[in-house]
Write a structure and sequence with these properties.
The protein is built from two helices and 21 strands. The longest helix is centred in the N-terminal third of the chain and has 6 residues. It is elongated, with a radius of gyration of 29 Å. Helix content is 4%, strand content 47%. The strands form five sheets. Strands 5, 8, 10, 11, 13 and 14 form a six-stranded antiparallel beta sheet that branches. The chain is mainly β.
């Protein structure tokens, strides 16, 4: 048993970085870069490289936590009015809830507390819409730590006598992104999943041979009213509710990742080349490991690289 253990012992890698040179170069796309050649001595089974650039820093190998600066919600919209539509109708509104239980039922949707956030967006009366328009707003104040936040579009048509008297509203490119000092991270996107729908009041689709008037896809959410004569005198509509957002005061970006530059089957690596696109001082880290199925030993070599 002791002999087996000794057979699996792993020597610490004999590995070091002796220096580097910086040269002017162009990348494969023809862009100017600073090409750094790192000179290495010794050997290791596996070598990984952290460039020191954002999201590639050894100091954050176990995770990177940043405060949330904003929770940005954005979407595009377009509207068209049918003949006989009352120009004062406000058929589309935007809602938010942190206690919706996710159930697309009367009890689930109507029983939740929804905050109207329509006024946060540049959503005019339908009669004033003539081109597809983008709008956005920070909704970070609506998030409750540890609780899911749902965003909904609610479309309602009041009783009417003319089937064409309604507004068609289209919603495109709905996205909610978490903003940090490092940029924007999408949390939910219409392109990744269409809005599920909940109908209230009569629905033309309940009549055999009729389809739902409102259609939700990853490309477009289109709201339209009932047109069957029997349904015109009754208020009716639909909710389109997003996937849940779970957002805290901080954003967990996960661990920074290295680049693997050598595996066990590769020959000894005496040099490694990496291109930098921006000037600055970078804390470069090489992690060299010797491994067996039972054990791993490693050495970490760091150096400051100055890119003029």
């Amino acid at each position: 048993m002791v002999a087996c253990s000794k057979g699996l012992e792993v020597d610490s890698p004999s590995f070091s970085v002796s220096g580097y040179t910086v040269n002017e170069a162009v990348d494969s796309a023809g862009n100017p870069v600073k090409q750094v050649v790192f000179n290495m001595e010794g050997n290791a089974d596996v070598i990984s490289f952290f460039s020191g650039e954002i999201l590639h820093e050894y100091a954050h190998k176990d995770g990177r936590i940043l405060p949330t600066d904003a929770l940005n919600m954005s979407f595009d919209y377009f509207a068209g009015m049918g003949a006989g539509t009352n120009p004062d109708w406000k058929q589309l509104s935007v809602k938010a809830s942190s206690n919706f239980n996710g159930s697309l039922t009367t009890e689930g949707v109507e029983g939740a507390v929804w905050t109207d956030i329509t006024d946060r967006f540049s959503l005019p009366m339908a009669k004033d819409v003539d081109v597809r328009t983008s709008t956005s707003a920070d909704i970070s104040d609506l998030a409750v730590d540890g609780q899911p936040l749902y965003i909904a579009f609610r479309y309602v048509t009041p009783p009417r006598t003319v089937s064409a008297a309604y507004t068609t509203w289209d919603v495109f490119e709905f996205t909610v992104s978490q903003e940090t000092a490092l940029g924007s991270t999408p949390l939910v996107s219409q392109r990744e999943g269409a809005f599920p729908l909940y109908y209230f009041g009569p629905n033309d689709a309940d009549t055999p041979g009729r389809a739902d008037r409102t259609v939700s896809t990853t490309a477009r959410l289109r709201f339209r009213a009932n047109i069957l004569a029997a349904n015109l005198p009754l208020e009716a509509g639909v909710w389109a509710i997003s996937a849940p957002l779970v957002v805290g005061a901080d954003a967990d970006l996960g661990p920074d990742r290295p680049v693997s530059i050598k595996n066990r089957i590769d020959p000894v690596l005496s040099a490694y080349t990496y291109n930098y696109t921006k000037p600055g001082t970078y804390k470069v880290t090489f992690v060299a490991s010797n491994v067996t199925t039972a054990e791993e030993t490693k050495v970490v070599k760091e150096l400051d690289v100055i890119i003029p």
